[in-house]
Amino acid sequence: MTQPQIPKLNTAKSGRDGAPSPSSGSTLTSMARKILFLQLPQLDNDVSPEHENTPLAACYLQYALQQSSERAFYRALRLRPADEELDDAHLLRRIVATKPDLIACTLYLWNIERTLDLIARLKEILPRLVVLAGGPEVARDHPFLFRRRLADVAAIGEGEPVIAEILRAIRLKKRTDFQNVAWLVRGHYRWGKQPRPEKPLREMLPPPSWLRRHARTGDMACLETTRGCPMHCAYCSYNQQRTRHTSLTAKETLAIIRKLKASGVNEIRFIDPTFNANPAFDEILQGMGEINHDQSMKCFAELRADRLTLDQARALARAGFVDIEVGVQSLNPSVLRTIHRPLSIAALDRGIRFLAAAGIQVTLDLMYGLPGQTLKDIKQAVLWATGRRRVRVQCLQTLLLPGTELRQKRQLHALEAEDRPPYSVLATDRMPTDHLAQAEAFIEQAIGAQYDCPAQQFVGRNLPDLFPEQVDAPQLGQTHRRAMIFRGSDLFVQQRQIAIQLQQAVAHEPHILWQFVLAVEQEEPLDLLELLIQTLQQCPRLPLDHFLGLRRRHLLAGRRLFIQLKKGRRFSRSWTAAAEEVLRSAFH
After folding, report:
1. Please, what is the angle between helix 88-98 and helix 112-125, to 10°?
2. Given CA atoms 373, 378, 380, 386 in this order, what sign does their dihedral have?
3. Other Cβ atoms within 10 Å of 241 Cβ, number
4. 3-state helix/strand/coil string of 196-250
5. Which parts of 52-109 fold into alpha helices (H)?
6. Omega within 30 of 0 (cis) for the link into 422
7. Which of 136, 127, 90 is nearest to 109 (CA)?
8. Which helix (H) or strand (E) holds 335?
9. Residue 136: DSSP 8-state
10. If you compute the radius of gyration of the chain from its CA atoms, what whole number of angstroms results?
11. Domain boundary assignment for the chain
């Protein structure tokens, strides 16, 4: 169910001057052009210190560049991990200070709008900057990417086979002629005509030492054993980007796993779209059982349970697999035919029971908002899934992702969806919006699903959801998650000034997550909250707001309002309860 990660990014430790540092091991000339790999992180309201933005894409691309003759002409740069926490203004300064000649950015639905706005500002300061765009968001039918004309080169699908040729063409002031690569020429994009080159996975996959050094995965490693997917799901673009399969042999896979174990890795995530599509699946499991006999490495993968035998389930357990993700999407045969997912429910159920008997946790993926699906279908699928043993259920709203068959046939299926990320389906041929909202309510009640990180408390002396960085003015601070505190003995009198400061803060940093905190010394009129809520509702919404689902479309998650009660002062329960209710009705 996870969308394949298309290589294009990197970050790591800085040089002594605090600027992004060059890729180690590069052969450089004094005139080497600097290429910065950029992948902006997904922002959420989680206040824990751990936030994952694994730069696998750039790692793969840097390796491809290192293996080519173009390595003598380019110097690869990567941002420091701390740079990924910066707001746009400080990130802009950091990038400008490096004076990159090229930027290769990885575009996902959660970062594309912020990335493009950052690129636009960079091009104003660095007019000769060349921008390469890749990642899952690059598709010919994208609703706004190509209209903005910010990418000088855009590549669909895998970047490793073409990155060196693209860089060579840029250096020689020429263009490639690949079907999956578009060049901006006099304000219009021109696509090539020749099939893109394809390479065996073994030639594209960086060695474990390179992955650990460049991908910043710590004690966790991502491992790919197969490119290509046997499924042709209408809602996924991967099968349209790559139609052929290439796999590592069991010997090659096991050699990597041995090195990962020796290096201290304690978790391996197999990022194959379908792990048991590898022809050497059984041999790999047998070898992993021997290598990981002490179960010191915990493994995760996605596979087809309807093709699984009891012996394979037991072999998965011996190999150290503790969680297996299984895509189901729907139990309705007609719906499955429409989205091209042939499935035997009996065989699927049998495979899940095999995994449960082997002691493996199963994560079942369901979807709502598929063409032909009804509210009854969704309820039946959820009840069936929650009735399975050792099963965790996640139910995802259907997205009309760029480059997918479902998006191309949206009119045929009467699919209504947002044209901004995440492109959520709002109505279908069989389900109006209110039915989809009812489906969400049923799902939440059945599986306890939550969207993002809902605030535990909006009003209190100690607010557990506040971001670590807390400032008193919009221009202060430097991170992309910031709390702004308003203090005073009578904030109601200052309500107009506070509203203006909220607008200024959002205008100053429109893409970061804001928390606006009223540090009150007395019970302020609730009209103050209403005015500030209205002010924030008038601001353009963030991608995080659109991830809340249909039932919470009226709420804001990316910019929230809190009340901090001054210690030592008494506040009535009725007032704090009323304030909490007002804020909870407007924010997530």
Report:
1. 50
2. positive
3. 20
4. CCCCCHHHHCCCHHHHHHHHCCCCEEEECCEECCCCCCCCCCHHHHCCCCEECCH
5. 56-66, 88-98
6. yes
7. 136
8. helix 333-338
9. T
10. 25
11. 21-191, 218-447, 459-584
Is the distance from CB of 305 to CB of 351 less than 8 angstroms? yes
Residue position matching structure tokens 């706004």: 144
- Please check whether residue 113 is in contact with residue 207, taking contact to mean a CB–CB distance below 8 angstroms: no
Rounded CA-CA distance 61/74 in Å is 12
Angle at CA 183, nearest 5°, toward 179 and 186?
A: 135
Contact call for residues 279 and 307 (beta carbons, < 8 A): no
Return the number of other C-beta atoms located less than 10 Å from residue 472's C-beta.
12
Please, which residues have CB within 8 angstroms of residue 78's CB and are 6 or more apart in sequence? 10, 11, 12, 20, 21, 23, 36, 37, 55, 58, 214
Contacts 24+ apart (CB under 8 A), 527-531: 527/492, 527/495, 528/491, 528/492, 528/495, 528/498, 529/561, 529/563, 529/579, 529/582, 529/583, 530/582, 531/495, 531/499
Note the pLDDT tens digit of each residue in 445-470: 999 866 678 999 999 999 999 999 99
Q: Check residue 69 and report its DSSP letter.
A: G
CA distance 317 to 313: 6
How long is the chain? 588
Q: DSSP letter for 310, please.
A: H
* The two three-digit tokens of residue 168, written as one number: 């060579």
For residue 362, the cross-strand partners are 324, 391
Count of Cβ atoms closer than 10 Å to residue 53 Cβ: 15
Can you tell me the distance from the alpha carbon of 306 to that of 345, in angstroms, rounded to the nearest whole number? 8
Lowest-confidence range among 42-46, 177-181, 196-200? 196-200
Helices (H), 433-494: 433-447
What residue type is 299 in one-letter code?
Answer: C
Asked if 21-191 and 218-447 have one fold, the answer is no
Nearest to 223 by CA among 195, 260, 276, 191: 260
Q: Which CATH architecture has domain 21-191?
A: 3-Layer(aba) Sandwich (3.40)
Q: Provide the 8-state DSSP code for 369.
A: S
Which long-range contacts does 208-213 make (Cβ < 8 Å, 24+ apart)? 208/256, 208/259, 208/260, 208/263, 209/259, 209/263, 210/59, 210/63, 211/56, 211/59, 212/263, 212/265, 213/12, 213/24
Rounded (10°) angle between helices 527-537 and 573-584? 10
Strand 267-270 and strand 298-302: pairing? parallel
Burial of 66 (0-12, 13-18, 19+ CB in 10 A): buried
Residue 307 to residue 333: CA distance in whole angstroms = 18
Backbone angles phi, psi at 581, to 5 degrees: -65, -40
Supply the pLDDT for residue 216: 62
pLDDT-wise least confident of 7-11, 139-143, 450-454, 492-496: 7-11
The rounded distance, in Å, linking the Cα atoms of 561 and 206 is 45
What is the enclosing helix (H) or strand (E) of 319? Answer: helix 310-319
Residue-wise pLDDT for 240-265, tens only, equals 677 788 999 999 999 999 999 998 89
Q: Is 218-447 in CATH node 3.20.20.70?
A: yes
